[in-house]
C-alpha cells in the first residue's frame, strides 16, 4: 500500500538529536511533498515552534539530555495549533502512555516503515485540519448569534442589550419576556454564545410544543419501561445540555408537576429520570422565555411563585417594535441586506414612500412581521426596488399562534415582471424555513397554497435537492 499525500503545504518539525534519523525522516517526508524543519535540541525546537508555527512536530523520546514528553507537554499548552507525534523505541509502553496523556496525538515505534510513517503523519494532519474547521465553524456561529446582529439604536433595545451582555459570562438564570417576534430566541442564543459555555451545547426546547405528559421525560429523561411507550432508556435534554445552556422557550406552558421538578433542579442541579431512583448532577445554565405575563399568572395561581422567583433572577423585558419605532428603518436596512444575500442579489432598495408606510404600521407581530413583510416585498418588487405596492401586511403575522388569515387579493398574484431566479430562491428559503410545510410557507410569502404549489411545480423544486 502506498500512502497518498493530498496536501503538500503542511510544515513538519522533526526533533531528534541524531542527525541520521532527522535526515532519513526528512527525505521521506520531503519526497511526499511536506515542508520540513529540523531541530536537534529543545531550545532549537522552541525557536522553530515560535517562528515557523509547524502543523506537526515529530518528537523523539530522548533528545540528548532532554525528554521529548516535556516538549510535547509544552506544545500542548503553548502551541495548540501544532499536533505532535512521539517517536519511541520498541517496548517503552509507559512513555507512550505518558506522551498521550501529555497531549501527543499519536506515537510511532522505531523502526518503522516509510508507509507507516506517512500514514501516521497524514492522520495527525487530518485531525489538525478538522480541529481548525471546528474552530472556524464556532467563530461563524458566534458571529451570527452575536449581539452585533441584534439590530437597533433605540434606548429600549440598547438597555436590554447592555444587561444581556453583562449577564452572559455568568451562570445566572435569565428570564426573557416579550411579545411574539420581539427577539427572545435571538437574545437567548447571543447569551449562550457570549458565555464561557459557548463551546458546550445549546439545547432549546419549546415547552408549548410538547404535550404535558411528555415534557417531564423530555427534560429529565426516563428509564426503559417507566411508562407504556418507554421502550428504552432516554437521556433528558437537561443532561444533553450538560456543560452548556438550556433554553426553555414558552416556559409558562409547563404543568404544575413539571414546574415542581424544574424548581427542584434549580435548587440542587440534580436530575432524576422518570422511573429512576438515582439522581445525577448536571451543570446547566438556564435561559427561559415567555410571551405571557408570569407575574399575573402567579397571582392567578397558574404558575408557581417559588419557580417564578428562581427563574426571574435577571429579567430581560424585550420592547415591542411599536415601542421602538425609531429602529424600524435600521432593521429594514439590515433585513434588506440579509435578504439580498439569501437570494444572491447585489442589493435591494426601498422607496421613501414605502419606508413611510412601514413607519406608520403598528407591528403586532413585531420584528418577525417586519422581516416577513420585507421578504414578501423582495419577492414582489420590480428591479430589486421595493415600493408601496410591494408592502403587504398579513394579519396572521401578528402572533405565532394566531390563525392564518386568507392571503389578500394583491398578494395572490406574484408580479409577472419579477425575476424568476429571485423568486425561486425566496421560495426555497421560505420552504426550508418552514420545514416544507406548504400552508406555513404560503402564509409567510403572502401567497395562496395553490400559487405556491404552482411555483414549486414550475421550478421543479424538490425537498432533497434544494435543502441545505
Ligand atoms: N433586534 C433584532 N435584530 C435583528 N433581527 C431580529 C431582532 N429581533 C428579532 N429579530 C428577528 O426576528 C425574528 C423573530 O425573532 P425571535 O424568533 O427571536 O422572536 P421570539 O421573541 O422568540 O418570537 P416568538 O415569541 O414568536 O417565539 C427572527 O428571525 C430574528 O432573527
Ligand atoms: Mg421564540
How would you describe what is shown here?
The protein has 468 residues and is an alpha/beta fold. The protein folds into three domains: 11-141, Response regulator (Rossmann fold, 3-Layer(aba) Sandwich), CATH 3.40.50; 145-317, Rossmann fold; 325-466, Orthogonal Bundle (Helicase, Ruva Protein, domain 3). It contains 20 helices and 18 strands. It has helices at residues 19-31, 42-52, 68-78, 93-102, 114-144, 155-167, 184-193, 212-220, 237-240, 256-268, 294-299, 305-311, 328-342, 352-359, 366-380, 409-412, 420-433, 438-445, 449-458, 463-466; strands at residues 11-15, 35-39, 56-60, 62-63, 66-67, 83-89, 106-110, 174-177, 202-206, 221-222, 234-235, 245-249, 270-271, 280-281, 285-290, 314-317, 349-350, 385-386. It has a five-stranded parallel sheet, with helices on both faces. A five-stranded parallel sheet has the order 9-12-15-8-16. Strands 4-5 form a two-stranded antiparallel sheet. Helix 18 crosses helix 19 (449-458). The longest helix is centred in the N-terminal third of the chain and has 31 residues, at 114-144. 36% of the residues are buried. The model is unreliable at 1-7 and 400-419 (pLDDT under 50). It binds adenosine-5'-triphosphate and magnesium ion. Magnesium ion binds at residues 184-185, 249.
Amino acid at each position: 500500500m502506498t500512502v497518498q499525500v493530498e496536501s503538500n503545504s503542511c510544515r513538519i518539525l522533526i526533533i531528534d538529536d541524531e542527525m541520521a534519523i532527522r535526515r532519513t525522516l526528512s527525505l521521506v517526508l520531503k519526497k511526499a511533498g511536506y515542508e520540513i524543519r529540523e531541530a536537534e535540541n529543545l531550545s532549537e525546537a522552541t525557536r522553530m515552534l515560535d517562528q515557523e508555527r509547524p502543523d506537526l512536530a515529530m518528537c523523539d523520546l530522548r533528545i540528548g539530555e532532554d525528554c521529548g514528553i516535556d516538549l510535547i507537554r509544552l506544545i500542548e499548552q503553548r502551541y495548540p495549533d501544532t499536533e505532535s507525534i512521539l517517536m519511541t523505541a520498541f517496548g517503552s509502553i509507559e512513555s507512550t502512555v505518558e506522551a498521550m496523556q501529555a497531549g501527543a496525538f499519536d506515537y510511532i515505534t522505531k523502526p518503522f516503515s516509510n508507509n507507516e510513517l506517512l500514514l501516521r503523519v497524514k492522520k495527525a494532519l487530518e485531525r489538525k485540519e478538522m480541529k481548525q474547521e471546528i474552530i472556524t465553524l464556532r467563530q461563524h456561529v458566534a458571529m451570527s448569534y452575536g449581539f452585533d446582529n441584534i439590530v437597533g439604536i433605540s434606548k429600549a433595545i440598547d438597555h436590554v442589550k447592555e444587561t444581556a451582555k453583562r449577564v452572559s459570562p455568568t451562570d445566572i438564570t435569565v428570564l426573557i419576556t416579550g411579545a411574539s417576534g420581539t427577539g427572545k430566541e435571538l437574545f437567548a442564543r447571543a447569551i449562550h454564545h457570549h458565555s464561557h459555555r459557548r463551546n458546550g451545547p445549546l439545547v432549546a426546547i419549546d415547552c408549548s410544543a410538547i404535550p404535558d405528559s411528555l415534557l417531564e421525560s423530555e427534560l429529565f429523561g426516563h428509564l426503559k419501561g417507566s411508562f407504556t411507550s418507554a421502550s428504552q432508556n432516554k437521556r433528558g435534554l437537561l443532561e444533553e445540555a450538560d456543560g452548556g445552556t438550556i433554553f426553555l422557550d414558552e416556559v409558562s406552558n409547563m404543568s404544575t408537576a413539571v414546574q415542581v421538578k424544574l424548581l427542584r433542579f434549580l435548587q440542587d442541579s440534580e436530575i432524576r429520570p422518570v422511573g429512576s431512583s438515582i439522581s445525577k448532577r448536571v451543570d446547566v445554565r438556564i435561559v427561559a422565555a415567555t410571551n405571557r405575563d408570569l407575574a399575573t399568572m402567579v397571582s392567578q395561581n397558574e404558575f408557581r411563585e417559588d419557580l417564578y422567583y428562581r427563574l426571574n433572577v435577571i429579567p430581560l423585558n424585550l420592547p415591542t417594535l411599536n415601542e421602538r419605532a425609531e429602529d424600524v428603518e435600521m432593521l429594514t436596512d439590515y433585513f434588506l441586506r440579509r435578504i439580498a444575500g439569501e437570494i444572491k442579489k447585489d442589493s435591494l432598495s426601498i422607496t421613501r414612500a414605502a419606508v413611510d408606510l412601514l413607519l406608520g404600521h403598528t407591528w403586532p407581530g413585531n420584528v418577525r412581521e417586519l422581516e416577513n413583510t420585507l421578504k414578501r416585498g423582495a419577492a414582489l418588487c420590480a428591479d430589486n426596488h421595493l415600493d408601496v405596492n410591494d408592502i403587504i401586511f398579513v394579519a396572521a403575522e401578528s402572533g405565532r399562534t394566531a390563525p392564518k388569515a386568507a392571503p389578500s387579493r394583491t398578494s395572490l398574484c406574484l408580479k409577472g415582471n419579477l425575476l424568476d431566479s429571485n423568486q425561486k430562491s425566496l421560495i426555497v428559503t421560505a420552504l426550508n424555513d418552514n420545514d416544507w410545510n406548504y400552508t406555513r410557507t404560503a402564509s409567510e410569502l403572502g401567497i395562496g397554497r395553490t400559487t405556491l404549489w404552482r411555483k414549486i411545480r414550475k421550478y421543479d423544486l424538490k425537498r432533497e435537492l434544494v435543502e441545505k
